[in-house]
Amino acid sequence: MPSMVSKPSVLINFLQALLAIILGNVVYFALIPQLPPVARHRPFHMDLGLILDFWFCLMAYGLIRTARRWR
Questions:
Q1: Angle at Cα 45 formed by Cα 52 and Cα 51, nearest 5°?
Q2: Model pTM score
Q3: Total structural domains within the chain
């Protein structure tokens, strides 16, 4: 039988991930004017801007998870 995961924990994980994506994108888009052209994402391309945006989202997720552990 598969292990059961409670719905509240799935919802909390989803909300944490969503918040991390929103915060990471806010930081990335706020910094775009200061970024060199090579670090700016072009839609529908795999480039340094996309990787940098993902990194900001990953850092936001790490900060959210760390903050929840400290509570």
A1: 15
A2: 0.84
A3: 1
